[in-house]
Task: structure prediction
Amino acid sequence: MTEYMVVIVGDADRWWSTMSRQERADGYAEYTRFGEELTGRGHRITGGAELHATTEARTVQPGGQQVTDGPFAESAEHVGGFYLVETEDVDDLTECCRIIAALGDAVEIRRTVSPEDRADSTREEAS
Result:
């Protein structure tokens, strides 16, 4: 199976700041449904997490010399969480991701680099 990272991108802080308790409960119910749908369709969740508010972020700036509080990018959209999912059907995984995208955040699906991919890329450079 191929591993993908499903990244939830949007106004992640709204879950902690502007959503009512009921809205959060309804949202979490959809995330539960998403997980059940993945499992039921033969995808395998291997990891992931919801992230706390961006105000708790610490960023090591490029070059490593400076550390700042808060997210790296000054943007309205930030990563709010992620899943690691193994699947042979990225099209169906994409279809399942519509469940959480309907909550108002974008969902980015990216294939992870496997040790074999890394080895292949070094072989290509050597040729």
Q: What stands out?
A: Strands lie at 2-10, 44-50, 58-60, 67-69, 78-87, 106-111. The mean pLDDT is 90.
